[in-house]
Amino acid sequence: MTCKVSVIIPNYNYAKYLEERINSVLNQTYTDYELILLDDASTDNSAEILNKYKNHPKVSHLVINEKNSGGPFKQWMKGIRMAQGKWIWIAEADDSAKPAFLETCVRNAENHEDVSFVYTGTQRIDKDGNLITRPFLYWERWNPTGEACFPGKAFAEYNLYWQNMVANASSVLFSREKALTLQEEPFWQWRSCGDWMFWFRMALQGKSIIEVYDKLNLYRVHHSQTQWGLESGNLYEEYFRVITGMEKYLPEVSAYKRRLCHGFCYQYLRRMASKELKKRLQKYYRETFSSSPTLDYLFLKLNFHLRFLPFVLAARKDWLKKK
Question: Which 8-state DSSP code applies to residue 189?
């Protein structure tokens, strides 16, 4: 199959949402795509649902694992290697999309130079599909319209370094060629923050990152997504690894900015109920950042109280925004 876009639906135990997700892809106004269906040894009736689509003309691959791979990002790369398209859309199995998602992303990807990825706005929904109206995206504060094009390296340094601006993988169309250059990277083995490191490395691969200020992606928020990572501490450990990993690629980031970012990391640990887990993660923090978490946090608090001064740095001051 030759096509412009490869849509990958990686699934694990989301039988409840699978038909809605698959149909949201099949109902796209843009039609030059293949559909790759992957199941990571689900224990519900996902395989039964997926098999209903195995003979659909858009479905190029249906692979149901006999054994669970142990992490979601391994399935991403498995699908990327199978893909034939120039562009990849990881359409997470529990999410959905508006019909114009692909058409909008492809148009923007093709109209700019050397694009690593395009991502749209996201509307959150709950487990029953009801809209969650509370602001979610960093740019909702100033309500831009249309789209913006940012230099890849600058977007990595000024936006992604502070937080994962790409709130949900289902909102992104990215370059297959650029993704394949990263296929041996260790973050594919991670469980919680591999996507953040992937977007950062992708941003460094090309000249352009495109933000589309239209909520064309529907991101389903429910309890299961991050609970294991929070309870085990894995999410925090990978969070720290992302920050130090990015700093290796951004040696120009000042010591001031690094310490602020480290203190920002630590503030999440302070609210932990489990003393044992908190103690373990404090030790991991010291080993990762070679600094005192308490002193870094106090530095962050002092900086916050002085944020009204023009020379005092803050994430919101640092972010690249549409002009």
Answer: G
Model confidence, pTM: 0.96
User: What is the CA angle 238-179-60, rounded to 5?
Assistant: 115
Residue spans of the domains in the chain: they are: 5-225, 254-318
Give the model confidence (pLDDT) of 229-253 as tens digits: 888 999 999 999 999 999 999 999 9
Q: Which of 257, 157, 259, 139 is nearest to 200 (CA)?
A: 157
Digit-coded pLDDT (tens) for 170-219:
999 999 999 999 999 999 999 999 999 999 999 999 999 999 999 999 99
The span from the CA of 109 to the CA of 233, in Å, is 37
Nearest to 180 by CA among 62, 84, 101, 70: 84
264-to-27, 141, 235, 293 alpha-carbon distances in Å? 41, 21, 15, 10
Distances 57 to 8, 25, 33, 34, 47 between C-alpha atoms, Å: 15, 13, 10, 9, 18
CATH C-level class of 5-225: alpha beta
What one-character-per-residue DSSP string does 112-161 give? SSSEEEEEEEEEEE-TTS-B--S--SGGGGT---SEEEEEHHHHIIIIIT
